[in-house]
Amino acid sequence: MLNYYMTINGRLRRIDEPCEGCWIDVVNPDEREINSLIQDYALEPDFLRAALDEEESSRIESEDGNTLIIIDSPVAEKGDSGVTYYTLPIGILVTPHHVITVSLRENAIIAEFAEGVVKGIQTDLKTQFVLHIMLRVATRYLQFLKQIDKLSSLLEKQLRKSMKNKELIQLLDVQKSLVYFSTSLKADETTLEKLMRGRYIKLYEEDQDLLEDVLIEIKQAIEMSSIYLNILSGTMDAFASVISNNLNIVMKVLASVTIVISIPNIIAGYYGMNVDGLPLRQFFWFPIVLSLGLMGLVGLILHKKGML
Fold first, then answer.
1. Percent of the chain, pLDDT > 70?
2. Helix, strand, coil distribution of the chain in percent, nearest 5
3. How far, in Å, are 58, 137, 211 from residue 7 at the CA level?
4. pLDDT-derived band at 308, boundaries 50, 70, 90
5. Lowest pLDDT segment from 11-25, 65-79, 113-127, 158-172
6. Among 61, 163, 178, 179, whose Cα sits 20 to 30 Å from the Cα of 230?
């Protein structure tokens, strides 16, 4: 699907046909649309293929006057087990006359630009427009990281009340999301540092401040994800130790109970044998009293040792 947008009278509007200085939004294009883009804008086929690859990492590359910037953006999806966080690449192709964004599926960040949520966008100022997209991506990372922190705190409180597999699995999902975010953010930071050198796209004086803002946001997101990941790893280790300790306590109690209740069986086994010489064998109540006495004595000893 191809959509065309251009800033007209200070507002981003959708247009029917592409023109110089417009923004072309490409979402999950079919083979015909891919071939049309390659022919109409003299694009490298590998550029489009890379932008549509879910596993493509963040990078920047330039060839024949066209520049490809791939940046990993955060995505949140609601499912039966809760919200899932992961990253998807956004391909940004900067040509001499257009900016083309390419994504494999609908992206909330690109949708915000298309719907006019982001103000002050000039599609003909290509470098500035690209940096605004990157700034929005960095801001979304920070937003999702705060949500992840609140979610992990809530799951931790629930785990303190009862050790259930559901909460532990959700914590593992959160940890996995933080790993995805941390890896993608570091790759995005490398891409931005390469962009700052000005070798791939021309940077104007007013763009420098915007690029620095994007880098600051990305570095802050990297630091936050690292802190949250370390805290969550420590929390998981602590809960694993608590679960292991609880299991040891249960096993110790069960072993102590087994020892206590085995005493009547041992005494009944002795007095049930056809053997002479057992004390007070003529009194039927004696084995019962002896069993109860020994059970009480062993129970008291085990209790003093902290096993019951």
1. 94
2. 60, 20, 25
3. 28, 21, 21
4. low
5. 158-172
6. 163
Please report, as a single letter, which amino acid is at residue 192.
Answer: L
| Dihedral angle, C-alpha 226, 232, 233, 234, nearest 10 ° | 110
The pLDDT of residue 69 is above 70 = yes
Quote the tokens at residue 64.
Answer: 């024949």
For residues 204 and 28, which has the higher predicted lDDT (pLDDT)?
28
Residue 69 tokens read as 């910037």
Kindly tell me the sign of the dihedral angle through the C-alpha atoms of 104, 106, 112, 115.
Answer: positive
Smallest CA-to-CA distance from 10 within 128, 130, 116, 136 is with 116
276, two tokens: 């002479």
pLDDT of residue 281: 65
Instruction: Tell me the average pLDDT across 278-306.
Output: 76
